Amino acid sequence: MYELNFGVPMAGAVICTLNAHHDAAMVSVLLKHSEAKLIFVDHQFLTIAEDAINLLSQSNSKSPLLIPIPEPSEDSSHSPGLNYESLIKTGDPCFDIKWPIDECDPIALNYTSGTTSRPKGVVYTHRGAYLNCISSILFSEIRTLPVYLWTVPIFHSNGWCLTWGIAAQGGLNVCLRDFTAKTIFEKITRYGVTHMTGAPTVLNMMANCPLADRQPLAAGQMVCVMTGGATPQPPVLEKMEEMGFKVVHVYGLTETYGPATVCEWKPEWDELSVDQQAKMMGRQGIRHIGTEAVDVKDPETMKSVPADGKTMGEVMFRGNTVMNGYFKDLKATEEVFAGGWMRTGDLGVRHADGYIQVKDRLKDIIISGLENISTIEVESVVYRHPAVLEAAVVGRPDEYWGETPCAFVQLKDGASADAEEIIGFCRARLPDFMVPKSVVFGELPKTSTGKMQKFVLRERAKAMGSLFMNGGGKMLEI
Amino acid sequence: MYELNFGVPMAGAVICTLNAHHDAAMVSVLLKHSEAKLIFVDHQFLTIAEDAINLLSQSNSKSPLLIPIPEPSEDSSHSPGLNYESLIKTGDPCFDIKWPIDECDPIALNYTSGTTSRPKGVVYTHRGAYLNCISSILFSEIRTLPVYLWTVPIFHSNGWCLTWGIAAQGGLNVCLRDFTAKTIFEKITRYGVTHMTGAPTVLNMMANCPLADRQPLAAGQMVCVMTGGATPQPPVLEKMEEMGFKVVHVYGLTETYGPATVCEWKPEWDELSVDQQAKMMGRQGIRHIGTEAVDVKDPETMKSVPADGKTMGEVMFRGNTVMNGYFKDLKATEEVFAGGWMRTGDLGVRHADGYIQVKDRLKDIIISGLENISTIEVESVVYRHPAVLEAAVVGRPDEYWGETPCAFVQLKDGASADAEEIIGFCRARLPDFMVPKSVVFGELPKTSTGKMQKFVLRERAKAMGSLFMNGGGKMLEI
C-alpha cells in the first residue's frame, strides 16, 4: 500500500485505499462508486475482494481487474496469473512519470470512516497533499532520515499524508501486521523508531499494557507520537510522557487531508502542573503552516464566536488543505461548504490565545434542560478514575430533562468499580448537571480507525428507556 | 528590515531591500529602476539616502518619500517629522492584510550583488517565497522556536527566505551591527543560538579568529550553520565541525530565492576520513524539496552531461523557486531562460549518486592549453596550506598556454610563506598543469556578501603581463 501511494499517482491515476476492515458488501459498493479499474489486494483479504467482485458482477457493474499481492515470503514468480510482483517486473524502469496537468488534479480518493452515514469519497489534490505533507513533517519535527512506525492505517487519509512525508525526509517505514502493544514496543526498540502516529486508543493500549509486554526506550531515544482522531485523555497523555514519549496532539478530518491544527506546546506551560499540562495538551490548538484558516463560528450567522474559552460554535476550515469536495455527491459537498467554509460538525471554543478546543461532535452533545453538556469533558473525568480503561458518554433520553449523561465504561483488566463509585467520583469533580446519571460496563464499540461508535451507544442508551420516574426529577442509578 | 519584510507585503506592496554597502550613486540608480515610492533608511545610512535622493531630483526623476529609522535608544516621539516609529504608531491594529490577488504576484525585488555587471532586479513571487522558505527550514532542520543569528544579510535574497522561515517556526532573531568573530561567538553563547547562516568567509573568520575572541558552545548546544554563496573549503569545514558546529552546505543564487540545492549528508559518509568527509560536504548536492529540477547540461545542446563526476556542463534550474524574471529587463530574462531552464553561469559535474558539484563560474574557469582548470579545485589545495587564510585563483594571460593559474593569497596573521613554498605545496597535490605558476600575496577583494571579486583579480593578473619568456614554455615564478 505504501508503494502504491507513489506508483499509482506517478502512472497518472488516482489512488483510493480501502479500509481493511470493510466486508465484501461495502467493498463492492465502494468499487462501484469509485469506478475503480484495478484493485490491488493483499493476500489476506483476497476472499473479501473476490466476493466483492462477485457481488459487483451480479449487479451488472463493470468489475475492476484484481491484482493479488502475494505474501512477501512466497516465490511469486511461480504463481499462476498476474500478481503484484510479476506486474512490477514487467515495468519499464525508464517510464516517464505522468505529472498532473494541473496541480489541482486529484491524487487520491479517501472514503470517510463513516461513524454515522454511508462513506463519502473525499477528493485530494496534488497541491493539497503536497502542502499537508510538508506541514505535517514540519510540525511533528520529522527530520532527515526518520524511522517511522506505521500505527496509523495508511488507508486513513493516506496515512495523514505521511506516506509522502516520510519519503520526502528519506525515512525508513516500519509496518505492522500484528497490532498489539507488545509488537509496537518491540518494533520501537528494534528499529530505533523516532516517530509514530496513532489514535488515542493506540496510546491507551500502550499506556495500559502489561508491564511484561513493555520495553523501555533506548538511552537517548526520543519517540514523537502524533495523536488525533479523537481527543486524547489527560491520564493517557501523562502516562505516555512518563514513558519518555513526546506526544503531539493534532486535529483534523479526512476532509482536511488529516491533521489541520496542532496543539503547539508553549514554553510557559513548562511551569504548569502535570495535570494542567495534560489539559493544555488536550486542546486542538492552532492551524499548521499549510492550513489557511481555522475558525469557530456560529453555524447560522457564520460569525466567529468570542475568544472566551466558553462560547461554543462549529469548527470550520478554509484553504488549500481542505478537500475539493465529495466525489459524485454535489449535495453533500454544497452542504459541507455552505457559507464558504468547510464545516467539521465539531463543536468547539476559541481560547484567548487563539487555541481552539473541540468540546463535542455537533450530534454527540447532550442537551439537558437548558444546559449543553460536552461529552468529552465528562469523559475526561471518568477517564481519571484509576479502574477505567476507556469511557464514552452519550445522551440518554429523559422525559423531564430531555437527555441526561450516560457513561459507558470499560474497566482495566483485573480492576473493579461499580456505577455508584464512578458517579461519586464524577460528582466530586463536575457540576451536578454534568454528572452521569447512569453507568454501563462492558467493551466499547469502535471503528477500524479507533473512533468510538457513539451512535451504537446512543441506540443502547435509547433502548434502556427514560430514567424519569416522577415529576420531581428524582434519578435512579443503575 | 526584518519587520518590513512582513509589513510591506502585508500592505500589498513589494519589498526591495538594498545592499547596505552601496554608495549614493548606486542607490539612486536602484531607486529609479525599482520605482520605489517609499524608502526606509536606518539612521546610520541617512546621508547616503539623502545624497541618492538629491542625485535623483537632479535627473528630474520622482523621488521616493524618505522615512528614517531612528536609533533604537532615541526617543523618536520628540523627533521632528515623520519617522519609522511615529509612522507605525499611526497604524490601525485592525488593518486588513492585503493578500496578493494571485499567488504569483510579486512579493520582493532583489538586486543581484553584481560581481560582474550592473545589478539586475530579480522578481520573487509569494508562491516561490513560501515554497523556498518552507524548504529552507526543513532541510536546515530549523525546528519549533529556533534562536537564529543573522550573519547573512537580510538584503541578500530576503535572508535566503529565512526572514519568513524564522517567523514560521516562532523563532527569536538575533541581529548584529558589529560584524566580528568575537561578537558572533558572544551572541551564540548569550542567546543560545541554534541556527545561523553565512558565506564561507564568515566561517573562515570564525575558524581563524584569535583564541581569546572565541567562546566554546554550551554543553549540549548544537549550532547548525547553513553556508553557501561560494564553495566552502575543506579545512574550514573541518575546523567548524571541530568547534561543534554542524555545517550544512547549500547552493543557490539570488535567482533561486537563495538555497536551491543542499549537500544532504549520507550515513555512509560517516565511515570516511575527516578529509574525505569535508570533500563530500563541498559538493553542492541535490535539489531541496521546493526545487522542481536541477540539472547539469551542455549549454549548447541542452543535453544532460553524463553522471560521471567529470564531464562539465552548466548548472541549470527549473521550477517554482526560480524567479519570475529580471524587472524591466526582457533581454536578460530571455537570455537566462534560453532553452526553458534558468542558466546559472556555473560550471559543474554530476556524480553517479545524483549529487552535483560546481567546479567554477563559467567566466572564471581557466583554459590552459587544451585543459580546463577548475579554479575552485586549485583553491581548495592552496587553502590547505597551514599559513593560508584565503585564496583565489584566476587565469593569467600567457602567450604560449593562453592562460595559466595565478594564485592570490592572504596569509593568516603572523604566518609566513613565499611563492615557492605555495607552488611546491600545490605541486605535491595537483597535476602539473593545474599548479599555479605565480602567487601574489595581499588582501583579497570581496563583495559585501562575501563573494570574491575575481574580476578585480583578473585585472591585476592581466596587468602583470604574460609569463611566457621563450618558445620552450619555460615558466618563471614570481
TrEMBL record, chains A, B:
EC number: 6.2.1.12
Cited Gene3D superfamilies: 3.30.300.30, N-terminal domain of ligase-like (3.40.50.12780)
Residue stretches making up the AMP-dependent synthetase/ligase domain: 2-327
Sorted UniProt keywords: Fatty acid metabolism, Ligase, Lipid metabolism
Catalytic activity: (E)-4-coumarate + ATP + CoA = (E)-4-coumaroyl-CoA + AMP + diphosphate
Gene Ontology BP, a term: phenylpropanoid metabolic process
Residues covered by the AMP-binding enzyme C-terminal domain: 377-451
Pfam families given in the database record: AMP-binding (PF00501), AMP-binding_C (PF13193)
Transmembrane segments: none
Family annotation (InterPro entries): AMP-bd_C (IPR025110), AMP-bd_C_sf (IPR045851), AMP-binding_CS (IPR020845), AMP-dep_synth/lig_dom (IPR000873), ANL_N_sf (IPR042099)
Gene Ontology molecular functions: 4-coumarate-CoA ligase activity; trans-cinnamate-CoA ligase activity
Record has Transcription as a keyword: no
Similarity comment: Belongs to the ATP-dependent AMP-binding enzyme family.
PANTHER family reported for this sequence: ACYL-ACTIVATING ENZYME, BUTANOATE--COA LIGASE AAE1-RELATED
Protein name per Swiss-Prot or TrEMBL: 4-coumarate--CoA ligase
Species of origin: Asparagus officinalis (Garden asparagus)
